[in-house]
Specification:
By secondary structure, the protein is of the alpha/beta class. The chain folds into two domains: about 170 residues, Aspartate Aminotransferase, domain 1 (Alpha-Beta Complex); about 250 residues, Aspartate Aminotransferase, domain 2 (3-Layer(aba) Sandwich), CATH 3.40.640. The chain is built from 15 helices and 14 strands. The chain starts with a helix and ends with a helix. Bound molecules: pyridoxal-5'-phosphate. The site of pyridoxal-5'-phosphate has 17 residues, from helix 4.
Length: about 425
């Protein structure tokens, strides 16, 4: 496989960016591929290799790359300008779509990333509750800001910094961390800090430690616990929103959150985030209330239009097709995994392969998998023209642009790599 251009660009990039990248998980050994083009289910690198893409920009591209309808709508918007710093109609179109699918979100604010969304949702919860502490689960990733860079998954774990240097102890001491899928630990954390916990923030399906599903009744129990102690429940649906169901994990698991954070698919791949909840809660946000939030590019018509076009298409096609592809992939991979002391987990159009025979129900389980074996398989799959997100602590995604043929070819590629690895 040719890779000389990627290697040359990476050498250049290492002089310009720490580890040669603009976000950590993109840097993998021995060198990342520089991508030049995406079309549908495929990405193309600068050496003219074509890969079936299961990274999909870490989740936003549920329609695949460069969908013609999104291009058409975005092009139309570009002709009219792309940032006004003033209210514009595309915000209303997208907000009404969000509200239609998330009944718990009566009002929202648009921001520019998932990081901003969770940062502001936590500030809002603290401001409205007049309490200091939050509870998160180990291995969940809620973006790269101080309150949540504690026992964080995704790149933070991949590179051994689940609790980042530079985050002051004073900031982190108000973040309580408990294992996922452990309602007793959650109860103990809330009761031990009674009257000082503002919010519990959860990835309802953990997508940043591989894919870890909530066990039966867990989300409901957390909901009941938070309600009983006047603690706000924040569902971080940056990954699960419009992916598990149009109404995200809240629809899929029938649990209603007080605050919801969104991103990724919401912008169709253009930078975006949002947080929202009841009108009463959201009216704490300035200038209606005293919790401050602002952003030069927030609600910009470019992201609003790309997001609306994406959601419009998803509303038309539904998620059944892409979810069926997810089932096909998980079923095929599970057959292979059984013979290789591995397992496959996922839901809807999300999946991950773990090099372990044990069920992965917590971050602690995910940490015990053979991560070197995972990386060897990842590199072997690249050679077979299959592009996964480059860490076990991420989620592989399918899009509406993938076909059963793509899935079957990928299953063959996995089989070939596993056979070669012995
Ligand atoms: C669940 C979750 N929350 C928040 C974030 C942060 O979003 P962003 O990378 O847009 O800042 C991510 C990013 O992967 C995420 O997966």
């Amino acid at each position: 496989m040719r890779s000389s251009r990627s290697q040359a660009l990476y050498r250049k990039a290492r002089a310009l960016f720490p580890a040669g990248v603009s976000s950590p998980v993109r840097a993998f050994a021995p060198y990342p591929r520089f991508l030049r083009k995406g079309r549908g289910a495929y990405v193309y690198d600068v050496d003219e290799n074509r890969y079936v893409d299961f990274c999909l920009a870490f989740g936003p591209l549920i329609l695949g790359h460069a969908h013609p309808y999104v291009i058409e709508r975005v092009r139309e918007q570009l002709e009219h300008g792309w940032n006004f710093g003033a209210p514009s109609e595309p915000e209303l179109e997208l907000a009404e779509r969000v509200r239609r699918h998330f009944p718990s979100v009566e009002m929202m604010r648009f921001v520019n990333s998932g990081t901003e969304a969770t940062m502001h949702a936590i500030r809002l919860a603290r401001g409205a509750a007049g309490r200091r502490k939050i509870v998160k689960t180990t291995g969940a990733y809620h973006g790269a800001h101080d309150a949540v860079l504690v026992a964080a998954g995704s790149g933070a774990t991949t590179f051994g910094t689940p609790s980042s240097d530079g985050v002051l102890g004073d900031a982190a001491k108000h973040t309580i961390v408990v294992p996922f899928n452990d309602a007793d630990a959650m109860r103990a954390a809330i009761t031990a800090n009674a009257r000082d916990v503002a919010a519990v923030i959860l990835e309802p399906v953990v997508g940043n430690a591989g894919v870890i599903l909530p066990e039966d009744g867990y989300l409901r129990e957390v909901r009941e616990l938070t309600q009983a102690h006047d603690v706000f429940l924040i569902f971080d649906e940056v990954i699960t929103g419009f992916r598990l169901a149009m109404g995200g994990a809240q629809q899929h698991y029938r649990v209603r959150a007080d605050l919801t954070t969104l991103g990724k698919i919401l912008g169709g791949g253009v930078p975006i985030g949002a947080f929202g909840g009841s009108r009463e809660l959201m009216e704490h946000i300035a200038p209606a209330g005293k919790v401050y939030q602002a952003g030069t590019a927030s609600g910009n018509p470019l992201a609003m239009t790309a997001g609306s076009a994406t959601l419009e298409l998803l509303e038309r096609t539904g998620l059944d097709g892409v979810n069926a592809l997810g089932d096909r992939m998980r079923k095929g991979l599970s057959k292979l995994a059984a013979a290789h002391r591995s397992r496959v987990q996922g839901v809807a159009s999300m999946f991950q392969w773990f090099c372990t025979a044990e069920p992965v129900r917590t971050y602690e389980n995910a940490m015990r998998c053979d991560r070197d074996a995972w990386h060897r398989m990842f590199l072997a799959l690249l050679e077979e023209r299959v592009y996964l997100p480059p860490s076990q602590f991420e989620t592989c995604f399918l899009s509406t642009a993938h076909t059963a043929k793509d899935v079957d070819a990928t299953l063959e590629a996995f089989a070939t790599c596993l056979e070669r690895a012995g």
